[in-house]
Amino acid sequence: QVQLVESGGGLVQAGGSLRLSCAASGRTFSRYGIGWFRQAPGKEREFVAAVRFSGSSTYYRDSVKGRFTISRDNAKNTVYLQMNSLKPEDTAVYYCAAKLLTSAQGMSVMGIQADYWGQGTQVTVSS
Fold first, then answer.
1. CB within 10 Å: which end of the chain, N or C, has fewer?
2. CA distances (Å), origin 83, targets 27, 31, 54, 68, 102
3. What distances in angstroms separate CA 78 from CA 22, 48, 58, 59, 127, one per listed residue?
4. d(CA 94, CA 90)
5. Which pairing describes strands 58-60 and 46-51: parallel, antiparallel, or unpaired?
C-alpha cells in the first residue's frame, strides 16, 4: 500500500517558479514509477512528467520540456517537480501517481491507470 500526498502548489505570476512535492508512505516506494499529471477545468487529466522506479530515467510532455524537472529521492520517499518559466496554460490541479515497476515513458501511457493517486495540489499562474 502506498499513500501519496502532494504539496507546494499556489498562485504565481507568469514566468515564476514553483516546486511540487509528492511524499509517499510505504517501504516499497523505490519499486514504483512516479508520474505527475494535471487537470485543468473542463479538460481531461493529462500526463506532465515521470521518473522511472529506479530513478534512472525521466520523461516529459513536449510543452514542459526545458521548463519542468522531475526528480526523486528514494531515501526520503519523495518525488519533486520543479516548474520554472510558468505559463497561464500550466494552471491546473496537479496530481502525482504511482505504478509498480513502471518506466518513465511507461507512466506517460499507463499512468492514468496508476495503482495510487494523491489528492492533488492547485497551481494557478496569473498573466
1. N
2. 28, 25, 22, 4, 23
3. 5, 17, 15, 17, 30
4. 10
5. antiparallel
- C-beta of residue 6 within 8 angstroms of C-beta of residue 20: yes
User: Is 95 within 8 Å of 6 (Cβ atoms)?
Assistant: yes
Outline where DSSP puts E strands in the chain. Answer: 4-7, 10-13, 18-24, 32-39, 46-51, 58-60, 68-73, 78-83, 92-100, 116-117, 121-126
The tens digit of pLDDT for each residue in 40-60 reads 999 999 999 999 988 789 999
What is the average pLDDT score of the chain?
94
- Which has the closest alpha carbon to 68: 82, 56, 79, 55? 82
